[in-house]
Write a structure and sequence with these properties.
- The protein is of the alpha/beta class and about 150 residues long.
- It has 2 domains: about 110 residues, Macrophage Migration Inhibitory Factor (2-Layer Sandwich), CATH 3.30.429.10; about 35 residues, no CATH class.
- It contains 4 helices and 6 strands.
């Protein structure tokens, strides 16, 4: 599950810009074979009196927390390629609007991740490829039985 959470002052991004960013995010992961429905983008707006940078109110800053559970980077080259992809998605929107931004990637163990309460299939397995093609969880009953040891 990649989940990108954008924290911003109100109305910093338009609906069109959010859509553009969300589509760019999905493209990063689907190009690596992850099902599109794994990809989440949340845009959280905070009241103007609730966003501060360097101790002062800020109207042009975004922080981005990126959570990775479906897979983690095991090579520095993968990290750099991902960061370049991130930059490719956000820079055109943020720079054009004079937005400053900071981001962090948080990785977790895949074993702690569930979709509809079931452990997702192994990375690049035939079942995950089916999920990719169909754009949804399939074989949920089979996965639940296996998860319960039945």
């Amino acid at each position: 599950m990649p989940k990108w959470v954008f924290n911003t002052p109100p109305n910093l991004l338009t609906a069109t810009e959010k859509q553009r960013i969300a589509e760019g995010i999905a493209a990063i992961y689907t190009s690596a074979g992850l099902p599109a429905f794994y990809c989440h983008a949340h845009f959280l707006e905070f009241a103007a009196d609730s966003v501060y940078t360097a101790g002062a109110p800020s109207s042009d800053v975004a922080t981005v927390a990126i959570y990775h559970i479906a897979g983690v980077f095991d090579q520095p080259e993968m990290e750099q390629a991902f960061l370049a992809g991130f930059d490719h998605v956000v820079r055109p929107v943020f720079k054009a609007k004079g937005i400053t931004w900071e981001s962090g990637v948080y990785e977790s163990r895949r074993e702690l991740w569930r979709v509809n309460g079931v452990a997702p299939p192994a990375r690049l397995s035939e079942m995950e490829k089916r999920w990719f093609r169909e754009g949804r969880v399939t074989d949920e009953a089979e996965l639940l039985r296996a998860q319960r040891g039945e």
